[in-house]
From TrEMBL:
One of its GO terms (molecular function) is tartrate dehydrogenase activity. This is D-malate dehydrogenase (decarboxylating). Its cofactor is Mn(2+); Mg(2+). It comes from Oceanobacillus locisalsi. Coiled coil: none annotated. Keywords: Manganese, Metal-binding, NAD, Oxidoreductase. It comes from the Bacteria.
């Protein structure tokens, strides 16, 4: 039997608090399912580590991580270091070197959760975002022409290969999960070089998946759709920048940061993928024991799905929903009075019943 090797990076702030609860869930799964086993190695690469060593991870950090089946990440960063340090020294090197060119975000209003939208329609779709190139490039610069005249240029880099890979992943995901439609978030009417290439490559890929319908929307119109008719969406395919913005809007309509999971995926499995809650280290509530562990536990469920264990993914997600629906054990961000630990324990109890 395969023993999954998981690298655990709890990080800072509420990261370690919510990670604790996710690890309880993981242990419950292997205790109760004889066909599932794992081994974890914890890495203390966080702000304390940075203060001591001047780096977020050791020089050979990526080499240490490479042999794992996956990485479970909490949240990194606190007020002692500038915000870009954990991003550029830890998260981005992992994403880039491990070619995690897919960012996967389910936008699903779980049973028992509230949405700020008026219509309590079904909200259940996914965002697949290009995660390795596009608008977030370091190419460009500031050109100074004297004090009052400044000019800055920021280049977007899109390649046929990069677009084709994310589009193929999206359509294949739709096929595997029996989704009927892929919606392309574009802006090729105004961004005439990169987004037209994006559209044409996405359309070519769409032609290879005839049974899945394809539609193209401008990203501003999609933002409106998220609010007005989210039930029309099944899978939104977006570039790095557009996907980033839409994902935050998505989490806002589906219960907020405390319950929003994400995955950074290397689809061919050559390198480990990384699973992490959308939220950061939330210094304002760190140490109080009231962080919502659902985002971290759902991220763990996405990891199980990525291992090919959709059965375990579903059990974890249903157990989370059982707790949310009961409304007895909720953290303050979603209207309750329970602690992080109480919510984690309640999810474990529901899971034990479902195994
Ligand atoms: P970072 O820069 O690390 O992303 P941030 O300042 O943007 O941090 P987040 O950690 O993303 O803040 O969270 C924003 C706010 O949302 C927090 O201050 C916190 O109040 C709330 N929040 C985030 N995650 C959770 C959670 N798991 N449970 C409860 N509240 C949360
Ligand atoms: Mg943040």
């Amino acid at each position: 039997m395969k023993v999954y090797k998981i690298a655990v990076l709890p990080g800072d702030g509420i990261g370690p608090e919510v990670m604790n609860e996710a690890l309880k869930v993981l242990k419950t799964l292997s205790d109760m399912d004889s066909t599932f086993d794992y081994e974890i190695t914890e890495f203390n690469w966080n702000t304390d580590y940075y203060m001591e060593h001047g780096l977020m991870m050791p020089e050979n950090g990526l080499k240490q991580l490479k042999s794992f089946d996956s990485i479970l990440f909490g949240a990194a960063g606190d007020s002692r270091v500038s915000e870009h340090i954990p991003i550029w020294e830890l998260i981005m090197p992992i994403r880039k070197n491990f070619q995690q060119y897919i960012n996967f975000r389910p936008i699903k209003l779980l049973r028992g959760l509230e949405t700020p939208l008026q219509q309590k329609e079904d909200i259940d779709f996914v965002i697949i975002r290009e995660n390795a190139e596009g608008e977030y490039s370091t190419s460009g610069g500031k050109m100074y022409q004297g004090e009052s005249r400044e000019l800055a240029v920021q280049n977007t880099i899109m390649t046929r290969e990069g677009i084709s890979k994310v589009a193929t992943y999206a359509f294949q995901y739709a096929r595997d999960h029996k989704l009927r439609k892929v919606t392309n978030a574009t802006k090729s009417n105004a961004i005439i070089h990169t987004m037209t290439l994006w559209d044409s490559v996405v359309e070519e890929v769409a032609n290879d998946f005839k049974e899945i319908s394809y539609e193209k929307y401008y990203v501003d119109a999609i933002a409106a759709l998220f609010v007005e008719r989210p039930k029309d969406l099944q899978l939104v395919l977006a570039s790095n920048l557009f996907g980033d913005i839409l994902s935050d809007l998505g989490s806002a309509i589906a219960g907020g940061l405390g319950v929003a999971p994400s995955a950074n995926i290397n689809p061919n499995g050559e390198y480990p993928s990384m699973f992490e809650p959308v939220h950061g280290s939330a210094p304002d509530i760190a140490g109080k024991g009231i962080a919502n562990p659902v985002a971290q536990i759902w991220s763990l469920a996405l990891m199980l799905q990525n291992f090919g264990r959709s059965d375990l993914h579903d059990k974890v997600l249903f157990s989370i929903e059982d707790v949310l629906e009961e409304k007895r054990t909720l953290t303050p961000d979603i209207g309750g009075k329970a602690t992080t630990e109480q919510v984690g324990d309640a999810i474990v109890r529901k899971l034990q019943k479902r195994m």
